[in-house]
Amino acid sequence: MRGLPLPSRIKKRKYKKQGKYILSSMVYFLLEMLALFFLLLIFSYVIGGQVRVFGVSMTPRLVEGDRLVYRKLSYEPQRGDVVICRTGKGFEYELVKRIIGIPGDKIEIDASSGLVHVNDEVLDEPYCSGGTYLLGDISYPLTVPPGQYFVMGDNRQESIDSRYSEIGTIEEDKIDGQVIFRIYPFNKIGKID
């Protein structure tokens, strides 16, 4: 009988091993979470980020509450891109808009027909919910200044955008990135055009 360990000794060894395992598992989990946090931080400041849609300016394609992922790294703004931008004119929350005019473009809006003209050509806008019948408070034709972009919401009757002096054209460094993907709601997950 002497050669057999006592049940209490077995339990103590077992609990010591379990305690070490639990502690190392917790430390490993915390290190993983810390690494994930830093990766997300780097992603959002360098590579891209995510944003929530507020308002109705991009309906029906994007609606209030949608969560979007955008890219920053090596992004060159192009006409037609959906972007995250800021005005630099007191509206420092992020806006979700579509680029209509790039530097040097001549923009005209025909309020009677609801058509937008860029460089004297009618802009094909299948993404738009209705025509552009509101001109805003700026003068047309407008030539987009160097280093700036003319942006509009897809829901032209409800969008406050570059047609209004309180937003105006957006400087390139105020464009945070191009929207590439919707991640919420889950039934609408997909690429954004």
Report what the structure shows:
The chain is an alpha+beta fold and 193 residues long. 21% of the residues lie in helices and 27% in strands. The protein is built from one helix and twelve strands; from the N terminus they run αββββββββββββ. The protein has one helix at residues 7-47; strands at residues 48-52, 67-71, 82-85, 95-101, 106-110, 115-118, 121-122, 142-143, 148-152, 170-171, 175-184, 190-191. The strands form two sheets. Strands 1, 2, 3, 4, 9, 10, 11 and 12 form an eight-stranded antiparallel beta sheet that branches. A four-stranded antiparallel beta sheet has the order 7-6-5-8, with no helix packed on it. The protein is elongated. The protein starts with 6 loop residues before the first helix and ends with a strand.
